[in-house]
C-alpha cells in the first residue's frame, strides 16, 4: 500500500510492524500517531468474548476497506485424516494475539474441538510437526503462502476443514488446490478450508478533526490508485479485493463512504449519458417517441452494449 499510495511530501505512508490483529485494533484506538491498521473481520467476535474493549468499542472503530481473504491452513502428520481427530491433541495455534491464534481458537471452539494449545512461531511449529511432538499446526495466510514451501518433502499434509453451518456467519468457504501447493496437493485434487477477510480500519474521528482529514486524504489516494495494486508483481490476492464491498457487523468510515458515493454518482451520470447516446442510435429514424416498455427493452440491450465499450 505504501509503495502505491505514498506521494512524497503530499502524502506519506509510514508502515510499522504490528503485534497481531488484536493489538492492531487497540493501537488504532489508543496508540498516539497511528491512523490506521490492518486486522481481521472476526476480531469483533474475539473482543465480544473477552469484553476487553467494552461493549461500545465498535462505535470507535470504522473500516476503510474490506481487503482480501486469508485462508486457514491446518497442517498435520499423515495419520490424521479428520479434524475431529485433533481432540485432546497438541495443536499449535500460533503466536498469542496473532490473527492465526485468534482464528484458530474461535474456529476450534465453534467446531467443538478441544485441544492442548501450543503457541510456537511458524518455523518452530513445523519442526515440532516433523518430529511428531505436536499433532497439527494452524497457519493463516493468503494463498499461495510462501512458508508452505518449507513443507516440501516433509510428508506433512493439509487437513480439510468442513464448512459446517456453525461457521457460516464468520467464515467464507475456500479451496486449496494443486496449483496453490503443487508439492502438497496432488494434481486434480483439492482441499476444502475456510477463510477470514483482512480489514483496513481507522478510528472514528469526527468530520471536523484533523485526523479525519488525514484519513480522507489517504482514502482518496488509496481508492483512486487501487488499479495499481492489482497489477503484477503485486500479490494476486489484490485482484480479489472490492474496496466498495460491505462488511457485515462493521461501520464504514465516513470518509470511505463519501468517496464511494461520489464515484457512484459519477458512474450514474456517465451511464445516463451513454444510455442517451445508445438510445439515439437505436430508437429508429422516424422520430417517434419511445414508450416505457420499449425503453426498458432498450436499456437491457444497452447494458450489453456498454460492456463492449471498455
What does this structure look like?
By secondary structure, the protein is α+β, with helices and mostly antiparallel strands. 35% of the residues lie in helices and 18% in strands. The protein contains nine helices and eight strands. Strands 1, 2, 3, 4, 5, 6, 7 and 8 form an eight-stranded mixed beta sheet that branches. Strand 3 (90-92), helix 4 and strand 4 form a beta-alpha-beta unit. It starts with a helix and ends with a helix.
Nutshell version of this structure?
Helix content is 35%, strand content 18%.
Secondary-structure topology with pairs:
Layout: H1 2-5, H2 21-30, E1 36-40, H3 43-50, E2 61-76, E3 90-92, H4 99-110, E4 116-118, H5 122-131, E5 136-141, E6 157-158, E7 172-177, E8 190-203, H6 210-224, H7 226-229, H8 254-282, H9 292-307
Parallel strand pairs: 3-4, 3-5
Antiparallel strand pairs: 1-8, 2-5, 2-6, 2-8, 7-8
Helix pairs in contact: 8-9
Amino acid at each position: 500500500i505504501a509503495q502505491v499510495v505514498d506521494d512524497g511530501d503530499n502524502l506519506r505512508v509510514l508502515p510499522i510492524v504490528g503485534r497481531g490483529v488484536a493489538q492492531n485494533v487497540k493501537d488504532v484506538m489508543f496508540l498516539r500517531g497511528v491512523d490506521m491498521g490492518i486486522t481481521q473481520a472476526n476480531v469483533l467476535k474475539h473482543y465480544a468474548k473477552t469484553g476487553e474493549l467494552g461493549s461500545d468499542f465498535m462505535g470507535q472503530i470504522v473500516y476503510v476497506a474490506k481487503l482480501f481473504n486469508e485462508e486457514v491452513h491446518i497442517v498435520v502428520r499423515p495419520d490424521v485424516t479428520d479434524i475431529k481427530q485433533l481432540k485432546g491433541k497438541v495443536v499449535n495455534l500460533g503466536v498469542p494475539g496473532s490473527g492465526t491464534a485468534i482464528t484458530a481458537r474461535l474456529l476450534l471452539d465453534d467446531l467443538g474441538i478441544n485441544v492442548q494449545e501450543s503457541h510456537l512461531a511458524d518455523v518452530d511449529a513445523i519442526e515440532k510437526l516433523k518430529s511428531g511432538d505436536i499433532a497439527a499446526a494452524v497457519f493463516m495466510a493468503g494463498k499461495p503462502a510462501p512458508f508452505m514451501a518449507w513443507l516440501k518433502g516433509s510428508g506433512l499434509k493439509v487437513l480439510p476443514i468442513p464448512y459446517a453451518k456453525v461457521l457460516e456467519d464468520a467464515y467464507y468457504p475456500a479451496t486449496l488446490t494443486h496449483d496453490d501447493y503443487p508439492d502438497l496437493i496432488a494434481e486434480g485434487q483439492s482441499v476444502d478450508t475456510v477463510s477470514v477477510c483482512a480489514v483496513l480500519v481507522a478510528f472514528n474521528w469526527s468530520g471536523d478533526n484533523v485526523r479525519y482529514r488525514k484519513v480522507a486524504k489517504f482514502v482518496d489516494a488509496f481508492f483512486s490508485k487501487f488499479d495499481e495494486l492489482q497489477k503484477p508483481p503485486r500479490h494476486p490476492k489484490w485482484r480479489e479485493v472490492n474496496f466498495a464491498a460491505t462488511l457485515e457487523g462493521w461501520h464504514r468510515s465516513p470518509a470511505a463512504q463519501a468517496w464511494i458515493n461520489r464515484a457512484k454518482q459519477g458512474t450514474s451520470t456517465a451511464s445516463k449519458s451513454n444510455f442517451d447516446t445508445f438510445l439515439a442510435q437505436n430508437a429508429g429514424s422516424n422520430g417517434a417517441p419511445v414508450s416505457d416498455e420499449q425503453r426498458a427493452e432498450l436499456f437491457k440491450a444497452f447494458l450489453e452494449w456498454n460492456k463492449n465499450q471498455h
